[in-house]
Amino acid sequence: MSADQEAETRAAALRGGTHVSPEDAAIGCRNVTKTFGSITAVDDVDLGVADGEWVSIVGPNGAGKTTLLNILNGFYTPDAGSEVFLNGEEVSGRPEHYRARHGIGRTFQGLELFESEDVLENVMTTRAVAERPNVLSAMLYYGTGRKTEAENMRFVEEILDYLELWEHRHTTVSTLPLGVQRRVDLARSLALEPDVLLLDEAMSGLTFDEKYDMIRFLTDLHEEEGLTLVMIEHDLEVVTAVSERMIVMQKGGVIARGPPEEVTNDPEVARVYTGVE
Ligand SMILES: Nc1ncnc2c1ncn2[C@@H]1O[C@H](COP(=O)(O)OP(=O)(O)OP(=O)(O)O)[C@@H](O)[C@H]1O
Question: Which of 9, 41, 155, 235 would suit a FRET pair with 35, their CA atoms being 20 to 30 Å apart?
Answer without folding.
Answer: 235
